[in-house]
Structure to design on (80 residues):
């Protein structure tokens, strides 16, 4: 069974698809050096490179109120 779950990063609102169970992701993040865990960008990049998540290049972000918006004003929020 393939594991896929659409999510948005709490800080920064980056859209990604979770490809592995949360336990596997948490274990991987705990294994990262502390200096990598200090940066959400580096954690997301490491998870993506390890195949545990897939960062979506759909130009959508989630705001603090839980609403999806295009990353650039005037851009479409529809996936491309």
């Amino acid at each position: 069974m393939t594991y896929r779950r659409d999510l948005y990063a709490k800080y920064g609102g980056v859209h990604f698809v979770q490809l592995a169970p949360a336990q596997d992701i948490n274990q991987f993040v705990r294994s990262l050096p502390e200096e990598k865990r200090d940066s959400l960008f580096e954690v997301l990049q490491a998870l993506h490179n390890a195949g545990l998540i897939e960062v979506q290049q759909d130009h959508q972000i989630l705001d603090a109120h839980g609403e999806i918006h295009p990353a650039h004003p005037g851009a479409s929020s529809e996936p491309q």
